[in-house]
Each structure stands twice: as C-alpha cells, then as structure tokens.
Amino acid sequence: PQPLITPIGWAWIAVCLAFFGWMHWNFLFQTYLWSKDPDWSHVLIIPGISIYYIYLNKTRLQAAPKQLCWWALPLIFIGLYSYVFWIFPGRNAMFRGYSMVRTIFATALFLFGPAAMRGLWFPIAYLVLAVKVSDAIWSRIAERLQDIAAAGATVMLQLFSEFMDFTVDNAGNTITLGFWRDG
Question: Angle at which helices 93-112 and 73-87 pack, to 10 degrees?
C-alpha cells in the first residue's frame, strides 16, 4: 500500500499543527491545569487513545484515497470563528473545546479527504471526551449519579441486612446504617 502520509502531507500537517498550537495554546494549557482535578485527570490520556486507534487502523487509512477536500475550508474557518467567539463574548470553555474538536475534524477532512475520514471520524469525535464539561452541567449530572448510586447501594445493603443484623435507611444520597436491629 502507498504510504499513509506523503512528504507534502507532512508539510501540511506541520503547518496546521503549528497554527493549531498557536491558536489554541491557552486552552491546551488550561486543559493541562484541569488534568490536576481528580474528576478530569483523564483529559491528557484521551488524545493518546485517539492516536492509538489511528495507529491500529493505519492499513485501512493507507488504502483510502487521499485528496485535498477544498469544501472543508469553510468548516475550518467556522470552527476557528466559533473558538474565538467562545473566548469573548461567549466565555465558555466547554464550547471552546468543542469548537477545537470541530476544527480538528475539518482540518483532517481538508488534508485527507472524505474517504479517509471514514476511518478518522471516530478518533476525532472521541476527543470530545477530553473537553471539560461546564461546572453547572457537571454538578447536575454528578448529583443525579450520586442519587442513583446511593439507591443501588441501599438495595444491595437491604439484601444483606436480611442475613445480618442491621437496618438501612436512604435519604437522598445519604445512607444510614443501624446495627443490632433487635438489640
């Protein structure tokens, strides 16, 4: 099979990566800072998983015909514009991250063409999981998940309480255990 990326393709990739790094430097650094939070420590691993997926499917990507897809240029500009919009006046890091992933998708479409995107859409879309969800949305999701986990744990504890000597009470996401039911 033909090589996955030609020397001219490597030059285009280098130019695009340099521009991408320059354009998104602040967000990438902020993502590094988010990785110190235990809830978001996975954000630095997600790009590696995407790259590994591409590596596993490299023969499929090599076989796909590559061509510049000029109609992807407007999508790149839309992604860059939305990224800048979410810096100011939008001021939303989550949508800024989604704009960055959209720009990566459009750039890959421009460089490799639609045929190669059949193998690239998943690892690029997977990068959405590396974007930190805004705190307002995250607190609502986390609260509901805690309630579900507490309800499930209460059911399991009530099952065990039939064989052991304790009581179980659930109020929201707080579980209270009472020992020595008859004592």
Answer: 160
Measured in degrees and rounded to the nearest 5, phi and psi for residue 177 equal -105, 135
The per-residue pLDDT for range 112-170, each reduced to its tens digit, is: 899 999 999 999 999 999 998 988 898 999 899 999 999 999 999 999 888 888 889 89
Instruction: Show Cβ contacts of residue 88 under 8 Å, excluding neighbours closer than 6 positions.
Output: none
Distances (CA, A) of 112 to 22, 94, 144, 161: 22, 27, 42, 60
CA distance 47 to 50: 5
DSSP string, 56-77: HTHHHHHHS-----GGGHHHHH
Q: What are phi and psi of 68, to 5 degrees?
A: -70, 135
CA–CA distance, 20 with 28 (Å, rounded to integer): 10
What is the pTM (predicted TM-score) of this model? 0.75
Return the sign of the alpha-carbon dihedral for residues 65, 71, 74, 79.
Answer: negative
Gyration radius of the chain's alpha carbons: 24
Strand partners, 167: 178
